[in-house]
Each structure stands twice: as C-alpha cells, then as structure tokens.
Amino acid sequence: MNWEAISFDWNQVRAFLATAEEGSFSGAARALKTTQPTIGRQISELEGKLGVTLVERSVKGPSLTEVGRDLLDHVQAMGEAATLISMVASGHSQEVSGEVTITATDLLAAAILPGILAPIRQSAPGIRMHIVSSNDIQNLLKREADIAIRHVRPNQPDLIARHVGDFRASLYASTDYLERAGRPRTPRDVADHAFVGNPDPERLIAPLHNQGVPLRPENFVMSSQSGVVVWELVKSGYGISMLPEVLCETQPGVEKVLPSLPSLQFPIWLVTHRELQTSRRIRIAFDHIVRGLGDAAKKVD
Predict the structure, then answer these.
(1) Residue 5: is it exposed, middle or buried by C-beta count within 10 angstroms (0-12/13-18/19+)?
(2) Predicted local confidence at residue 94, as pLDDT
(3) Helices 113-123 and 280-299: crossing angle, nearest 10°?
(4) Residue 54 carries which DSSP code?
(5) CA 67, 77, 16 angle in degrees (round to 5)?
C-alpha cells in the first residue's frame, strides 16, 4: 500500500460523491445534513489534494469534468465499501431482515437478475426479495417498489438514481432461422427478413433506418409486449429481433445478424427512494445490484 499517495480524507470524497449522485451542491448538503458552502469547500480541498478539477461550477449547477467522471466509479466503490464496513462493525450485516421489492422489465428480471441476486442470499440471508416483473415504470414515491431498474433517469427530486452502465443491443436470430432464410450480407439484405418484437415496430424501425436498414412494419410477423415472449420467439426461429448482447452472446443456437452493423446502446439506471439512507436491507440490496449490473454491462466488449 502506497500510504503517501492517500492525501485526502473521507469527508472530501463523500462530498464529491454526494454531489455527483444528487446533481447539485444543495442536494448533496441535504443528503449529508450539512451546508452548501461546506460541500463546495470540501470538494475544492479534494481537488487541491489531487491536483485536478473534478467539478465545473456554473450558473446551471455543477457538472463533472472528464477526470471527475473517470474517478466516479472508484469513488462509488469507496462509498459502498464504507457502508458495508459500518454495517459489519455494528454487527448487523448478517442480521438484516425484511422484504425488498425490486422492479425490472420481464426480460431482465427473468434472464439477468437471478445471477445478480445470488450474492445477497449469501451475505444477508434474512432479506426476502420480491421481484415485480413489469415493463411499466413503477412509482417508487408511492412505495410500489424499493428499487427499480430503468432505462431512463427519473426526474423526481426525492429519488436517488445511479447510472450503473450501458447495455448494448444488436440484431439476433436463431441459427436454424438463418440457415433456413439465409444470412444477410448487407444492411439492405436485413430488410428482406422476418422480425419479431414490440407491438410498436417504429421503436426499432427508426434507429435501423439510421443504420441503412429499410425495415417496414410488414417485416414484423409476430409481436408481444413481453420481452420474454419475444426472446422465446427468436429462439424458436420465427425471425430477427433487437436483443441485449449480454443475454444472447452466451445462448447456444442464437447468433448475431450482420456483425458489422453497429450495436445500439441503452443506459441502465438503478433507482430507489431516500430510505436508502436509513434502511440497511435496501442499502445492501442496492449495492449488490449496482455491482452485478455494472459487471454484466462490461461482459460483452
């Protein structure tokens, strides 16, 4: 350990982390129960110790610099470690009990969440997890869920949101389907194939048009609001669909269609209410899911 390299203190790091997560100095001050000038001073001291600028100040509020964004993952890991240290020191980490409700899209809930939630059962077996599989946005302010996994950042000020990474999606089909219908060689060829997907085909047609694929509503031979159903239709050989790479790259019998076509990116946000600050069971679940989703987002390079 290079002790001389650690020239800052935790309060400075905590002020920077709270500002990044809350989006403002005032929000950070409320979260940490201190004053806005104190937050600004602590961040300035941290910048002085590190010799870099972490936050740009403007009339529109603070924004992270490129260096600040680069350091954010490491600072968030420090925050999670500090929380777990406090829990273990108080003797409560294994004693936490109660229900945590998690909401996610049906495909993510069925195909990705099970592997992510396993460590929670090991570290806090008293936590009971209730999973709400829904493609609708649940209202955390009304306590319909404790933690929500979303693809857009919420704008409610009383919610805490963490961007945990970006999932990539590409066109996939079953090997059986491609051997039967032929493998496309160009973006134009893709438009001659059958597709399965959401009942609103424009959600996929528009971005594919931007990539030179002249897809039409008539291409969609089957559709469903359920991501799980679409996934099963693809595996059964009914056609092509846009699906997460983290799911498809490990699935035997499913292959990427026209690999030269650029992937689409969609963000993953983990959202919770302010009870995260005081509820140990929600904090433990939240931190585990942050790490799990972050790792999943990095699996497919």
Answers:
(1) exposed
(2) 47
(3) 140
(4) -
(5) 50
pLDDT above 90 (res 181): yes
Please tell me the predicted confidence (pLDDT) of residue 284: 87
As given in the structure block, the two tokens for residue 289 are 């899911």
Ramachandran region, residue 98 (left: φ > 0; alpha: ψ -120 to 50; beta: rest): left
Q: Which CATH class is domain 3-88?
A: mainly alpha
**Domain boundaries, given as residue ranges, for the chain:** 3-88, 98-166+266-299, 169-265
Phi/psi of residue 90, each to 5°? -85, 0
Instruction: Report helix, strand or coil for 114.
Output: helix
**What is the fold of 98-166+266-299?**
D-Maltodextrin-Binding Protein; domain 2 (3.40.190)
Cα 211 to Cα 8: distance, rounded to the nearest angstrom: 47
Q: Give the residue-averaged pLDDT of 157-174.
A: 89
DSSP one-letter code for 239: -
Contact, 31 vs 277, CB < 8 A? yes
Distance of alpha carbon 43 from alpha carbon 301, whole angstroms: 34
Tokens found for residue 189: 């060829």
pLDDT in tens, 114-126: 988 988 888 888 8
Of 12-21, 63-72, 154-163, 197-206, the range with the lowest mean pLDDT is: 154-163
| Residue located via tokens 């409610």 | 156
For residue 161, give Cα distances in angstroms to 22, 29, 67.
8, 17, 21
Which percentage of the chain shows pLDDT scores above 90? 47
Domain formed by 169-265, architecture: 3-Layer(aba) Sandwich (3.40)
Asked whether this chain's domains 98-166+266-299 and 169-265 adopt the same fold, the reply is: yes
How far is the C-alpha of 9 from the C-alpha of 158, rounded, in Å? 28
pLDDT digits (tens, 9 = 90+) for 54-97: 999 888 888 899 999 888 888 888 877 777 666 555 555 445 78
The pLDDT of residue 93 is: 45
